Amino acid sequence: MTQYIETATELINAIEESNLVGGGIIELKPNTLFNITEVYDSGSFSKSLGLPEVSAPLSIIGNNSTIDWGIGSDFLLLSSTNQYNTRLRISDITFRYVGSGADSIAIRFWDFFSSSQTQPTMGLLEVINCNFEQGPQTAEARAIVTTHRLIVDDCNFKDNYTNGDGGGAISVIGSVTSNEKQDVSIRNSTFESNHAAFGGAIAIGLAVMQI
User: Fold this and answer.
1) Most exposed of 50, 72, 164, 186 (fewest Cβ within 10 Å)?
2) pLDDT above 90 (res 208)
3) E strand intervals along 74-161
């Protein structure tokens, strides 16, 4: 019998446990609203997080649930721990930004590399059958920012916005020191009223893209 996650507190605890045991699968209770209204942690890069930083392979199955986020947090879900082979898979969730901040991001799957580093194997971010509805244009909120391989399938992006950067909905940033370029695949997805300084919906740098 499936043990569903039913509250925001349970979701936080499940991500923490997944990190401790080296990865896992989290399944949300079908058609449930999760309010991420408090800051979990100050996080990396002096940015506040709504959920624990992901440090191990993780799959979150939403079962048509909704996550409202952004009150007090800059990033909802962050992975930035130099886990080269890490996989993060998010499916069947509607993300609604309800904050009023600047340059907030729902999913940030990210690594920094110095000029002396090379990246042996890219991580993989998969976002399947998700919706990103990012509030009023006066609030800067993007859906996905990543430096890894990306698969987006059957998703909808509406009203995502950034004022001083590229990719209102999706931004993929490559690394000149990497041994391989990011593969980006976007299929069966819609983009509506997304805005940015450049690349209103999508910005891709040093990556191989397939739409």
Assistant:
1) 164
2) no
3) 75-79, 87-97, 104-109, 124-128, 131-133, 141-146, 149-153, 156-158
Determine how many CB atoms are found less than 10 A away from the CB of residue 16.
14
> What is the C-alpha to C-alpha distance for residues 154 and 152, in angstroms, rounded to an integer?
7
pTM over 0.90: no
Domain count, the chain: 1
Burial per residue of 140-150, b for 16 or more beta-carbon CB atoms within 10 angstroms, e otherwise:
bbbbbbbbbbb
Residues, the chain: 211
Q: Which residues contact 46 (CB under 8 A, 6 or more apart)?
A: none
Q: 33 lies in which domain range? A: 8-210
User: Is residue 139 one of the residues assigned to a domain?
Assistant: yes
Residue 173: name the closest of 78, 109, 81 by CA: 109
Instruction: Note every long-range contact of 203-207, with CB atoms under 8 Å and residues 24 or more positions apart, other chains counting.
Output: 203/165, 203/166, 203/167, 203/170, 203/171, 203/172, 204/167, 204/172, 205/166, 205/172, 205/173, 205/174, 206/173, 206/174, 206/175, 206/176, 206/178, 206/181, 206/182, 207/172, 207/174, 207/181, 207/182, 207/183
Task: Report how far apart, in Å, the C-alpha atoms of 58 and of each of 127, 134, 162, 179, 201 are.
Answer: 12, 24, 27, 24, 26
Secondary structure (3-state) at 210: strand
Domain membership of residue 145 (yes or no) is: yes
Q: How confident is the model over 23-33, as a mean pLDDT?
A: 96
pLDDT digits (tens, 9 = 90+) for 155-187: 999 998 888 778 889 998 875 455 555 688 999
Q: pLDDT band at 120, cuts 50/70/90?
A: very low
